[in-house]
């Protein structure tokens, strides 16, 4: 199934999450738990029930999430001791917006064993620690795809999506 690309951009944190001291460099070393695991991209699909927020509302809500989880907008780096760290530089997350010309009903029953890569952000050659793909279907359903590295799971907590709920957005699965 072919999907149409609407937009592919880097979403930066809202103004309130910007550091007041632009010269400060904050490095957060990975924890012992992060070091004990291997790098793995975790893909999650969420559906939205109508009424659907616009993509702009979704992006605004995501930018507010950085206030609570600044690690999501950071980048991996190495400190002067050779440890892998997250650089809290507000570099942002990748947000891809697509249009799916079919209805969700035509996709059902949804079989995750089939190739669903067209509904997910890419995992190869990316530097972002957190990616989101907003898939707009021809019907009244949206699909939110999230990719994150499991090594930063304590920092890229799923509670970030709960913050979207707190901002008036329904995030659930059907």
Automatic annotation (TrEMBL):
It comes from the Eukaryota. The keyword Transferase applies. Belongs to the plant acyltransferase family. One of its GO terms (molecular function) is acyltransferase activity, transferring groups other than amino-acyl groups. InterPro entries: CAT-like_dom_sf (IPR023213), Plant_Fungal_Acyltransferase (IPR050317). Pfam families: Transferase (PF02458). Keywords: Transferase. This is Transferase.
């Amino acid at each position: 199934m072919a999907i149409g690309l609407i937009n592919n951009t880097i979403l930066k944190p809202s103004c309130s999450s910007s550091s007041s001291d632009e010269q400060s460099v904050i490095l957060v070393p990975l924890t012992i738990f992060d070091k004990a695991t291997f790098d793995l991209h975790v893909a999650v699909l969420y559906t939205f029930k109508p009424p659907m927020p616009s993509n702009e509302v979704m992006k605004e809500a995501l930018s507010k999430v950085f206030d609570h989880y600044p690690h999501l907008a950071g980048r991996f780096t190495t400190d002067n001791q050779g440890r892998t760290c997250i650089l809290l530089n507000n570099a942002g997350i990748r947000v891809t917006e697509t249009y799916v010309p079919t209805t969700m009903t035509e996709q059902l029953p949804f079989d995750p064993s089939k190739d669903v890569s067209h509904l997910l952000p890419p995992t190869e050659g990316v530097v972002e620690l957190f990616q989101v793909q907003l898939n707009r279907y021809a019907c009244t359903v949206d699909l939110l795809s999230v990719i994150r590295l499991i090594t930063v799971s304590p920092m890229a907590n799923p509670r970030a999506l709960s913050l979207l709920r707190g901002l008036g957005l329904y995030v659930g699965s059907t």
